[in-house]
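To whoever is on call:

I kicked off a structure prediction for a single chain this morning and the downstream step that reads the tokens threw a length-mismatch warning. I double-checked the sequence; it's 123 residues and nothing unusual in it as far as I can see. Pasting both halves so you can look.
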Amino acid sequence: MTAAGPGWWVPVPVEFGVRNRHHVHMTELLTDTQVTDALQHLPEWRQDGAQLSRTVEFASFPQAIQAVTRIAEIAESENHHPDMDIRWRTVVFHCSTHSKGGITANDTSLAQEIDNVVEALKA
């Protein structure tokens, strides 16, 4: 995805961890069309009302906790935190910008970072 106007982000590939992001109006709510377009690049995610959601089953409980810990570190460094529900080996991630009442480019960017962590741990 490239910077295509307000609310879009430019991904910078990383193996794992925090990446430099280049944002344009990151806190503007995305339109339904923008969310649909973003989900084409986030195939494991779905729109669930005013949030993006993904369910991941890990190989073990410790691996699930490791993922949550790594994602928590990223979220803390970016001051944008997903909701995470841990049920044994299964973690459900929800990304939403609560202060805006919906999905912003911060959420699509965080979803991509979550995908990066999941891919690194499952490799």
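Update from on-call: the warning came from a stale cache, not from the record. Cleared it. Sanity check on the structure: The helical segments are 32-39, 61-78, 105-122.
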